[in-house]
Design a protein that fits this description.
2 copies of one chain form a homodimer. With 225 residues, chain A is an all-alpha fold. Chain A is 66% helix and 0% strand. Chain A contains 9 helices and no strands. Chain A is elongated. Chain A starts with 25 loop residues before the first helix and ends in a 12-residue tail after the last helix. The relative contact order of chain A is 0.08. Chains A and B meet through helix 1, helix 6, helix 7, helix 8 and helix 9 of A and helix 1, helix 6, helix 7, helix 8 and helix 9 of B. The first copy, chain A, binds a DNA duplex (30 and 30 nucleotides) through helix 3.
Chain lengths: 225, 225
DNA sequence: GCAGACTTACCGACGTGTCAGTGATTTGAT
DNA sequence: ATCAAATCACTGACACGTCGGTAAGTCTGC
C-alpha cells in the first residue's frame, strides 16, 4: 500500500547497491546541512545559532532544513551523532583505537585540534552549554563523558598494571579529560599563551608514571620490566 | 536622548559618606538585579537568558533593569565585576590570599563549590560561551585567565623554589586551572561520578611535588626508580 | 519641585515552526 | 520502455511568540 514516511521501506531490491531508498542526492544535501550546523552552532552556540543561518550555509531555506530534520533540537542531535561518525571514520587505523595506543591517539588529537579552532569551539561551547536546564545535548554529553572516563580508566589501568575500578585510576581518567577540555577554553581565548599538546603530554606522562610506580596494593605481581 | 539612564556611575562623588549619592534603597535594588542576573544567566546562559526573567526575579519590569544598566551587555559586565567583588569580600581573611596559602584557598574554593552548583554553572556556561565571536564577556574572561595564570605560576614558583617565568611552571599553572574548570563540566553533568575536591588536591600535590623535586633537569623517560 | 526610580506601551527585528504548493524523481503497472 | 501516480525535496508566505531597546509619563523621597 502506501508507504508513509521515508523510513518505511524494505525488501525492494535484492542487490546491495547503495542508492535505493533516498533520492540519490539526498544524503549529500543532508550532510551539507549537518556541516553547516557544525559551523554555525560552533561559532555561535546552539541557542544563538539560527536555523536561517544554517540553511543559508547549506544553500537552502530554513524550511528546507526543517523538512529534513523536523526541529532545531533534532538537528543538533543529528549533528552530534554525525560528528562522532566522521571522527571514527577519519582515523586512519581502525574504527576504535584500543589499548595503550589510545593514549597516543589522544595526544595526536590534541595536536591536531591546534589546527582546527572551529571544531574545538564547537565542542567547548556545546558541552558547557549542555549543562543548562533542559538542553537537548545534555544526554549526549553525559553519556559521552561517562564512556570516555570508563575507556580511559581501562587504558590507564592496563598501562600501569592497576585495576580499572581503582578510584585513583578513575580519578586520573576524569582529571585527564578535564585537563584537555579546560585547556581548550584557555587556548581559544589566548592561543599564544597556552601550549595544549605540550601540557597534556607532560601531565599524562606524569599521571601514568605515578600510577605505575606507586602501586599501593598490587593485586597481582606486576614486574616493571 | 532625553532622560539619560543612570547606567554609568562609577562612585565619583566627593564625600565617601552615604547621604549624598544614591537614593537610599537604590544600591539595594541594583544588587537585587545583579543577583537575579547571576541566577538567570547561570541557569540559561547569557544568550538564552532574558532581561524579562532577570527583571521578574528582581521584582521589576525589564525596562526598569534597562534603566539601571543601560543594556543587556552592560548588565552582564556589571554582574561579572559584582561577582568578583563579592568573592573577594566573602573570604574571611583579607581581600586577596597571598603566597602559598593561595593553593589552600583554591582547594577550599573547590570544596565549597560542591555546595553551590548554581555558581559553578554560571561560571562554566559563561566562560565557555565567551569564546564565541563578539561575546561581551570575552575580554573579562581573557583577562581573568591571564591574571590567574600569572598569579598561580608565582605561587607555584614560590612553593617549589623555581622561577615564575619557567615554562614548566607556567604550564602547570595553566594545567591546574584547566583541571578545575574542566572538572566542573563533568561534575555538573554527573555529580556522583566526579569527586572534584579529591581530584584537584591529588593533582595539585603531584604537580608541586614534581616541580620541587625535579629541579632544572631535562626530563628523561625513566629517571625515577 | 526636581531628580531619580520606576511603569506602561510600543516598536522593529528575529526565531521557530506550519502549511500549501511546485517541480523533480522514483515507483509500479502495463 | 512508457507513462501516470506517488513521493520527495524543497520554497515562499505567514503565524506567533520573544527579545532588546525606546519614549513618555507617573510616583516618590528629599
Amino acid at each position: 500500500m502506501a508507504a508513509k514516511s521515508t523510513a518505511d521501506r524494505g525488501a525492494a531490491t535484492a542487490a546491495a547497491d547503495r542508492v535505493v531508498k533516498p533520492q540519490a542526492k539526498t544524503t549529500e544535501r543532508r550532510e551539507a546541512v549537518l556541516r553547516a550546523a557544525m559551523s554555525v552552532f560552533g561559532e555561535r552556540g546552539y541557542n544563538k545559532g539560527s536555523l536561517v543561518e544554517v540553511a543559508e550555509r547549506a544553500g537552502m531555506t530554513h524550511a528546507g532544513v526543517l523538512h529534513h530534520f523536523g526541529s532545531k533540537e533534532a538537528l543538533l542531535v543529528a549533528m552530534l551523532q554525525y560528528r562522532d561518525g566522521e571522527e571514527a571514520a577519519g582515523v586512519p587505523g581502525r574504527a576504535q583505537t584500543e589499548g595503550p595506543a589510545f593514549l597516543g591517539h589522544l595526544l595526536d588529537t590534541v595536536a591536531e585540534n591546534t589546527t582546527r579552532p572551529g571544531v574545538v569551539q564547537t565542542y567547548t561551547v556545546l558541552s558547557a552549554e549542555s549543562v543548562t536546564e533542559g538542553h537537548p545535548a545534555q544526554h549526549y554529553f553525559r553519556q559521552r563523558f561517562s564512556i570516555l572516563r570508563t575507556k580511559l580508566a581501562g587504558v590507564l589501568a592496563e598501562v600501569s598494571g592497576r585495576d580499572a575500578d581503582d578510584p585513583e585510576v578513575r580519578d586520573d581518567a576524569s582529571a585527564l579529560i578535564a585537563l584537555m577540555d579546560g585547556l581548550q577554553v584557555q587556548w581559544l581565548l589566548d592561543p599564544d599563551d597556552v601550549d595544549m599538546p605540550r601540557i597534556v603530554e607532560k601531565i599524562m606522562d606524569q599521571l601514568v608514571d605515578r600510577l605505575a610506580t606507586r602501586s599501593v596494593a598490587p593485586p597481582f605481581p606486576r614486574p616493571q620490566d
